[in-house]
Design goal:
Radius of gyration: 23 Å
CATH class of the largest domain: Alpha Beta
Structural class: alpha/beta
Strand order of the largest sheet: 8-9-10-7-11-12-13
Largest sheet: 7 strands, mixed
Number of strands: 13
Shape: elongated
Number of domains: 2
C-alpha cells in the first residue's frame, strides 16, 4: 500500500515561499501542494504560472471551506503569524511557521498552547540545524570528541533584504522587520541547538547604519548554564552573505559553514605557537656582520 501524501497549503506567496517552501514540497514525494493562499492576486498568478499550482485562495477560511488540508506553511510577515496559526490549528492542520514565531512572547505562548490543545505540531522553520555540516558538529559535541564546549560564536551576515532580493517592504516596518526579527532567531536557535540548552541571560547591542527605520546590525551575548557563552552577530550591511560558526572546545575547535566542516586541535595550536615563537626569536636575533 502506498503511503498517503500530506496535503499542504502555503499561506503567503512571497519570496520565501517561492524560493524555499514551494520547491521543497514539490521535490518531496511525501507531500502534495493542495493550494496557495495570498491576498495579492498578481503574486498568486505569478506563482501559478511558475509552479503550475492549480488552486489558490485569498483567505484561510476559503481554503479550509474548500480543501482538506493536513499541514500549512506560514510564509507571511511576522505580525500576521499568530492569527493565521491559531485559525489553522483550530481547523486541525499542523503548522510550519517562518521565523520568528511571533513578534512578542505572549503571542508565541498562545500559539504553543493552541497547538497542544488541538494536538497538532507547531514548528518554526529553523532549517540551519538540519544542514549536514551542523548535524556533524552536533554529533561531535555529543560524543565528547572536542571536549567541553565552553563557547559558540555564530555569525549571519548578509545584504539588506529589501535591496538584495525582496520586494516586500515589511522588512523595514518597526516591530515587524529589522535584523533582530529577521536573522537573530536563526542565530539564537543555532546556539541553543549546539549547546542543547536554553539561555539563562541575554544582552545585546544594536545599531542602524543605513538610512532606514529599523536596526541593521546587532551583536548579542548569550549566557547558558555552567558558564557557557554564546556570541551572535547579525547584519544587513554586508555586500556578500557570510554564514559561519565557531565551536570552542577544550580538546578541539570546530569551524562550520553550511558547506564546510573543519576541526582544529589544541595540540596543533600549541605547535603553531611554538613555531611562531621560534620564528620571532630568529627575527629578533642580531646577526654578526
Amino acid at each position: 500500500m502506498s503511503e498517503k501524501q500530506l496535503r499542504v497549503a502555503i499561506v503567503g506567496a512571497g519570496q520565501i515561499a517561492e524560493t524555499a517552501h514551494i520547491p521543497a514540497y514539490l521535490r518531496n514525494p511525501h507531500t502534495k501542494i493542495a493550494a496557495i493562499v495570498d491576498t495579492d492576486n498578481k503574486q498568486l498568478a505569478r506563482v501559478i504560472k511558475k509552479f503550475k499550482v492549480k488552486k489558490t485562495y485569498n483567505s484561510v477560511d476559503d481554503l479550509f471551506d474548500k480543501e482538506e488540508i493536513d499541514a500549512v506553511s506560514i510564509c507571511t510577515p511576522p505580525d500576521t503569524h499568530t492569527d493565521i496559526a491559531l485559525k489553522c490549528l483550530q481547523y486541525g492542520a499542523h503548522i510550519l511557521c517562518e521565523k520568528p514565531l511571533a513578534t512578542d512572547a505572549e503571542s508565541s505562548r498562545k500559539m504553543i498552547a493552541a497547538s497542544r490543545d488541538n494536538g497538532k505540531i507547531l514548528m518554526v522553520g529553523f532549517h540551519r540545524r538540519f544542514t549536514p555540516t551542523y548535524q556533524k558538529a552536533k554529533k561531535a559535541i555529543l560524543d565528547g570528541s572536542i571536549g567541553h564546549v565552553y563557547c559558540v560564536e555564530d555569525h549571519f551576515i548578509e545584504p539588506n533584504p529589501l535591496y538584495a532580493f525582496s520586494k516586500s517592504t515589511w522588512f523595514l516596518r518597526q516591530n515587524v522587520g529589522g535584523v533582530l526579527l529577521d536573522i537573530a532567531p536563526h542565530i539564537l536557535d543555532m546556539l541553543n541547538f549546539l549547546f542543547d540548552d536554553f539561555p539563562v541571560a541575554i544582552s545585546a547591542q544594536s545599531h542602524t547604519y543605513l538610512d532606514q527605520p529599523v536596526e541593521d546590525f546587532c551583536v548579542f551575548l548569550v549566557e547558558y548554564s555552567n558558564g557557557r557563552i554564546g556570541i551572535g552577530t547579525a547584519s544587513w550591511i554586508s555586500s556578500i552573505v557570510t554564514e559561519c560558526t565557531n565551536v570552542l572546545g577544550t580538546a578541539q575547535n570546530l569551524y562550520i559553514t553550511p558547506s564546510s566542516y573543519m576541526k582544529e586541535s589544541t595540540s596543533e595550536f600549541r605547535e603553531i605557537a611554538k613555531l611562531r615563537a621560534a620564528a620571532e626569536s630568529l627575527i629578533s636575533m642580531k646577526l654578526p656582520n
